[in-house]
């Protein structure tokens, strides 16, 4: 684990190679939700059959594949060969142009895209401001950045608050802190001159998760926030979580119905860029 921790601190970003085998099973939307979320993104960006779109951090294509039917040409960049290999094996992936590239140095000319899609990426990159600068560079004059993400993440809702309080209390603060953007995008981008266009668009859905499934996901290191932990730190955090589960949940194996939503906000780049 120490080599992984050192790599994260030296590179300043998180690569998802180790998650390729389980990413879709642990990050996918509930059945039937992906088309509605793709439609939401397209609507937020006024995307159409003539739009040229880039997704930064395309991964296994959980956003890109359903978005294909709304756009003319879709490009994707990612640092993880393993994640993109998963994408290439899926039906329809041949229509996406994939590039192994760092978001801090996008391999495209200026003003190349009508829209750039960004979902759960900036918290994984230390120099997230640099990523935004590159995105502004490759957007056309009237192009939009489309920031999406889970609103009120079900796993971090009040239902599971005892678990996360125990987890954070058991671990060093620097190990549970994000390496990149820590504040909401809706606050960070306007402070840098990005202008929100329209109101945020949301699609609500229900997630079923049990307290014990959260424990198991942590134990299996499914989330990137666990990858910087040593085995000893992970064991300490898991012990605290298990104690919290026993104290607060009468039926820890029982799935609970949690309300969540996917939100998309369009932004126009700073005028001076």
From TrEMBL:
Q: Which species is listed as the source? A: Candidatus Thermofonsia Clade 1 bacterium
Q: Which InterPro entries match?
A: Methyltransf_11 (IPR013216), Methyltransf_Superfamily (IPR050508), SAM-dependent_MTases_sf (IPR029063)
Q: What is this protein called?
A: Methyltransferase type 11 domain-containing protein
Which terms does the record give in the GO molecular function aspect? Answer: S-adenosylmethionine-dependent methyltransferase activity
Pfam families, per this entry? Methyltransf_11
Residues of the Methyltransferase type domain: 54-147
Q: Which residues form the signal peptide?
A: none
Superkingdom of origin organism? Bacteria
The family database entries (Gene3D superfamilies) matched by this protein are listed as:
1.10.8.900, Vaccinia Virus protein VP39
């Amino acid at each position: 684990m120490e080599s992984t921790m050192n790599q994260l601190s030296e590179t300043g970003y998180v690569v998802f190679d180790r998650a390729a085998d389980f990413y879709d099973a642990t990050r996918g939307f509930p059945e039937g939700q992906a088309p509605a979320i793709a439609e939401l993104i397209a609507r937020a960006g006024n995307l159409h059959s003539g739009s040229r779109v880039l997704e930064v951090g395309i991964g296994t294509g959980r956003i890109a594949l359903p978005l294909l039917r709304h756009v003319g040409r879709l490009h994707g960049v990612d640092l993880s060969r393993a994640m993109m290999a998963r994408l290439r094996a899926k039906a329809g992936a041949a229509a996406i142009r994939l590039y192994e590239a760092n978001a801090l140095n996008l391999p495209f000319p200026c003003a190349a895209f009508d829209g750039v899609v960004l979902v759960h990426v900036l918290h994984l990159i230390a120099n997230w401001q640099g990523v935004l600068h590159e995105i502004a560079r490759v957007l056309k004059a009237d192009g939009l950045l489309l920031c999406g993400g889970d609103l009120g993440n079900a796993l971090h809702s009040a239902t599971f608050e005892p678990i996360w309080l125990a987890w954070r209390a058991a671990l060093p603060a620097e190990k549970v802190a994000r390496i990149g953007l820590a504040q909401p995008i809706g606050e960070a981008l306007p402070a840098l001159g990005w202008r929100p266009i329209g109101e945020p668009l949301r699609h609500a859905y229900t997630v079923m998760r049990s307290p014990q499934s959260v424990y198991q996901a942590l134990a299996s290191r499914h989330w990137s926030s666990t990858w910087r932990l040593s085995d000893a730190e992970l064991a300490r955090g898991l012990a605290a979580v298990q104690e919290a589960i026993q104290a607060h949940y009468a039926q820890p194996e029982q799935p609970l119905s949690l309300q969540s939503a996917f939100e998309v906000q369009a932004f126009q780049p700073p005028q001076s860029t």
